[in-house]
């Protein structure tokens, strides 16, 4: 198995990587395979798999009272990673999140991944669940992603939560973390957000992948601020093409990002989603070409399980 940081450092040419969402519980695994298959012609060195915490729903009983139901909507990272490794010659990068998990559960997941010889993970805090204004960690969980990074880094040094362990196996995880060129929506400003990012790097993160953005100037400015703050690890830009009119409202609200006026002007001319889909391909292709011209080591594409527009972008840009 190969670490992502080694892939980045040893690749002589920039490459594309992808992020997919696991299929809903009860779905056939073939849906995931069908989402990956069209992308394999571009020889991605790794594929990220998102993780989705359990959700809470209150259901009314016949007597009028409510009962709390915990819903698991998608398979976990370990199962998905194992399934992909069995089918495709590609490194799998499972996401691990603090939300909904104790540090002991996270340690068990990391042990399972280590048994599978998976050496790459992305450490995230995760968002608040619906109905919560703020992120609330589990009683024995982590409040910040830098704490999860530190836990993984400790396991790489043979330090587990059980302090009585002796001669414990040293794991060998490469740790990726997320960053926000337009700042995380909870951060008071971009400078403090970069301070928080630096804490993750100092805790043991090997590289950074950004949230999607649609204005490359914001990415370049973000990278400059990171370097000025002393963050020297690789920073991989993340992109997602707009494909429907719904994205115009949903993406800025969900990810706290801006859509450039030039992009909006083009979208407003569109008669339907088919035309918007083509504008999304053209805009993302232009972003990709510009990022590659400015020396980006790689571009990470958020596919959401749909490959056709990503394939077209890659054919034009790489």
Textual characterization of the structure:
The two termini are 25 Å apart. The chain is an alpha/beta fold and 318 residues long. The chain has helices at residues 4-10, 30-36, 77-87, 103-115, 145-156, 190-203, 216-228, 246-255, 261-268, 273-293, 308-317, and strands at residues 15-20, 46-49, 55-60, 66-71, 91-97, 120-124, 174-179, 207-212, 235-239, 298-302.
Structure, briefly:
With 318 residues, this protein is of the alpha/beta class. Helices cover 40% and strands 18% of the residues.
List the helices and strands and how they pair.
Layout: H1 4-10, E1 15-20, H2 30-36, E2 46-49, E3 55-60, E4 66-71, H3 77-87, E5 91-97, H4 103-115, E6 120-124, H5 145-156, E7 174-179, H6 190-203, E8 207-212, H7 216-228, E9 235-239, H8 246-255, H9 261-268, H10 273-293, E10 298-302, H11 308-317
Helix pairs in contact: 5-6, 10-11
Instruction: Report the order of strands and helices.
Output: HEHEEEHEHEHEHEHEHHHEH
Strand arrangement in the largest pleated sheet: 1-2-5-6-7-8-9-10
Largest sheet: 8 strands, parallel, barrel
Pick out the low-confidence regions: none
Overall 3D geometry?
globular
Strand content: 15-25%
**CA-based gyration radius:** 20 Å
Number of strands: 10
Structural class based on helices, strands and sheet pairing: alpha/beta
- Binned, the helix content reads 25-40%
Kindly report how far apart the N and C termini lie.
25 Å
Q: What is the averaged pLDDT score?
A: 90
Oligomerization category of the chains in this entry: single chain
User: Helix tally?
Assistant: 11
